[in-house]
């Protein structure tokens, strides 16, 4: 046994030198000068763990390695995971970014690699809010859960996570339910100004709307554009007048439909004027003026009024349409009945 130990002690340096030469790395005399640089070369060459351990024992500093090669872990993470694991085990900082500013945790989340994500989180990597958003977009619940557990203040840092997921087209019921059970705020607004229930209604997902309402979402929520759930859901058994748009929900559609009687009157009168070879400019100007006054009156009296002279709904639409028609008819008839109108 003593003889075998002596032989092993004599052969180990030679075998290490041969291995380093094979990898194109510096030998022991060079290692003594800069062992940290040699370790960096060995890591990039994917040297065996035994070689890495030996270099570490010979004086290669992981702290110095992190300062000299801060991008090393993120660069090695995607293709050389075993080497990256060795770096993490020896205390290499897990949050140092690569040349593009992305950390190893970023790459792991984008690749959907749950095993790597957990390893990096166990090594102390700190997730950012953008990473949690990326995980939710990937719709992998274990990945979302792992990042969420490492971010205890996630509801304060990413308050609009649920509405943003739905606003970007996400439709995974399991993800939505997990976020609700995790405590995500269904009333937080996304970039479009929609709450979660309005975003789900825009997608036409009745099941998600019901799920959100069951978990306490506000059924009377109104978006920044003044639209609520009635913009997307109408009773098919209701009459035509009951399905007309409300000015608070869809102002443009409300005004366009309210202007239809005025438009019809204009086309009838324009046909009569053309038949009599009379110019259209006067009645066109009168009609445009009537439409402008109608729109201003409706916006002043009915749009987001508190309280309103007339309750929102069909009555507002009928009054707006009648006002526009009366103004148009009165203006055109007044012009045509005057003697000087024959000159034009």
Topology record:
Layout: H1 2-23, H2 28-33, H3 35-44, H4 49-57, H5 62-68, H6 72-77, H7 81-89, H8 104-110, H9 114-122, H10 129-138, H11 141-149, H12 154-157, H13 161-167, H14 173-182, H15 196-202, H16 206-214, H17 251-258, H18 260-275, H19 281-301, H20 314-337
Question: Summary?
Answer:
The protein is an all-alpha fold and 344 residues long. The chain has a domain at 251-343. It contains 20 helices and no strands.
Name its key features.
344 residues, mainly alpha, disordered N terminus
**Rg for CA atoms:** 36 Å
Q: Provide the succession of SSEs.
A: HHHHHHHHHHHHHHHHHHHH
Give the low-confidence spans.
1-32, 235-240
Percentage beta strand: under 5%
What is the residue-averaged pLDDT? 78
The number of helices is: 20
The helix-and-strand class reads mainly alpha
Q: Given the C-alpha coordinates, what overall shape results? A: elongated
What does this structure look like?
This protein is mostly helical. The chain has a domain at 251-343. The chain has helices at 2-23, 28-33, 35-44, 49-57, 62-68, 72-77, 81-89, 104-110, 114-122, 129-138, 141-149, 154-157, 161-167, 173-182, 196-202, 206-214, 251-258, 260-275, 281-301, 314-337. α3 runs antiparallel to α4 (49-57), α14 runs parallel beside α16 and α17 crosses α20. The longest helix has 24 residues, at 314-337. The termini are far apart. The model is unreliable at 1-32 and 235-240 (pLDDT under 50).
């Amino acid at each position: 046994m003593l003889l075998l130990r002596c032989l092993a002690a004599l052969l180990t340096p030679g075998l290490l030198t041969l291995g380093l030469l094979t990898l194109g790395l510096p030998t022991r005399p060079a290692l003594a000068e800069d062992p940290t640089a040699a370790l960096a070369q060995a890591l990039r060459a994917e040297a065996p763990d035994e070689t890495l351990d030996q270099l570490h024992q010979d004086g290669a500093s992981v702290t110095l390695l992190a300062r000299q090669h801060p991008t090393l872990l993120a660069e090695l993470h995607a293709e050389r995971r075993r080497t990256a694991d060795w770096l993490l085990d020896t205390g290499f900082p897990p949050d140092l970014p690569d040349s593009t500013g992305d950390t190893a945790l970023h790459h792991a989340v984008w690749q959907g690699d749950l095993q790597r994500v957990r390893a990096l989180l166990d090594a102390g990597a700190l997730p950012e809010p953008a990473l949690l958003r990326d995980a939710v977009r990937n719709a992998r619940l274990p990945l979302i859960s792992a990042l969420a557990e490492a971010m205890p203040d996630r509801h304060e840092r990413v308050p609009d996570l649920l509405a943003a997921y739905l606003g970007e087209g996400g439709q995974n019921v399991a993800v939505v339910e997990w976020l609700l059970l995790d405590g995500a705020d269904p009333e937080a607004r996304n970039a479009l100004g929609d709450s979660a229930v309005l975003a789900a209604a825009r997608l036409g997902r009745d099941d998600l709307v019901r799920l959100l309402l069951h978990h306490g979402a506000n059924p009377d929520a109104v978006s920044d554009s003044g639209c609520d759930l009635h913009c997307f859901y109408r009773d098919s058994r209701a009459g035509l007048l009951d399905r007309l748009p409300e000015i608070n929900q869809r102002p443009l559609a409300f005004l366009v439909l309210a202007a239809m009687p005025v438009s019809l009157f204009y086309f009838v009168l324009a046909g009569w004027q053309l038949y009599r070879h009379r110019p259209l400019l006067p009645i066109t100007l009168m009609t445009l003026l009537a439409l402008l006054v109608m729109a201003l009156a409706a916006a002043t009296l009915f749009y987001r009024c508190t309280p309103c002279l007339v309750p929102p709904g069909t009555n507002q639409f009928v009054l707006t349409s009648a006002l526009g028609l009366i103004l148009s008819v009165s203006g055109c008839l007044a012009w045509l009945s005057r003697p000087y109108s024959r000159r034009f």
